[in-house]
């Protein structure tokens, strides 16, 4: 496989998230350069970027290795997302474009349709696209970048179970878009906060303390009542 040099960082990150490289394993420049069909220079730059993002660590006598994050670090990621996702939704209510709204509404329609059919794989992809678009609608490149990094690391560290009621989850997405479309930042923030809080309950750590375990990490037991939030 050969890819452009500027895509090396993305490719290595994607392979780490997908589990191609095991936690703690060495990442040698020579082997990576051969795998991605580039010289060692862009590989070296990519490893520095991935170290800053927390996917890679440099160890004495071993060099670059895949990081081994702890259970606490995983919990911190979910907490950070609970703070930043609502902020992004609030800003989207003030800064979104008609193009953003069109995409968001289209994703909600597809999500609600797939929820009725029970297609969980499609729902997972659609949910990711929805939150990525919502972040972009915030009009803040820095916030969008932080949320993107959070999603990558959460996908790496957690298995996400299908929600017990997918239709209700997509009703929440729809309510967020309605608030964003009306320019109601406070309502967009509130619904997104509750939605993010509940979604944390279906995340299971892939690993803790170097061992693969399925300990459930729940940020809340409280259900989201979208109806109660509606005016």
TrEMBL record:
Transmembrane segments: none annotated. Residues 209-231 are annotated as: Disordered. InterPro entries: GntR_C, TF_FadR/GntR_C, Tscrpt_reg_HTH_GntR, WH-like_DNA-bd_sf, WH_DNA-bd_sf. Residues 220-231 have a biased composition (Polar residues). It comes from the Bacteria. Signal peptide: none annotated. Residues 2-69 form the HTH gntR-type domain. Keywords: DNA-binding, Transcription, Transcription regulation. This is GntR family transcriptional regulator. It comes from Streptomyces doebereineriae.
């Amino acid at each position: 496989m050969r890819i452009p040099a500027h895509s090396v960082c993305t490719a290595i990150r994607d392979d780490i998230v997908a589990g191609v490289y095991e936690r703690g394993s060495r990442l040698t420049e020579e082997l990576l350069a051969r795998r991605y069909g580039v010289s060692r220079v862009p590989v070296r730059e990519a490893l520095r970027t991935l170290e800053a993002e927390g996917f890679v660590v440099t160890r004495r006598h071993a060099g670059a290795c895949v990081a081994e994050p702890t259970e606490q670090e995983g919990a911190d990621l979910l907490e950070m997302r609970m703070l930043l996702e609502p902020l992004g939704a609030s800003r989207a209510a003030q800064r979104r474009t008609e193009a953003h709204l069109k995409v968001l509404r289209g994703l909600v329609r597809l999500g609600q349709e797939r929820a009725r059919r029970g297609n969980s794989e499609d729902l997972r992809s659609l949910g990711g696209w929805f939150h990525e678009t919502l972040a972009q609608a915030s009009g803040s490149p820095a916030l969008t970048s932080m949320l993107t990094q959070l999603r990558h690391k959460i996908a790496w560290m957690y298995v996400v179970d299908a929600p017990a009621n997918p239709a209700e989850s997509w009703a929440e997405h729809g309510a967020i878009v309605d608030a964003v479309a009306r320019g109601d930042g406070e309502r967009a923030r509130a619904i997104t906060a509750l939605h993010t809080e509940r979604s944390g309950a279906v995340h299971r750590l892939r690993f803790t303390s170097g061992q693969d375990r399925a300990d459930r990490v729940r940020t809340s037991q409280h259900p989201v009542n979208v109806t109660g939030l509606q005016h």
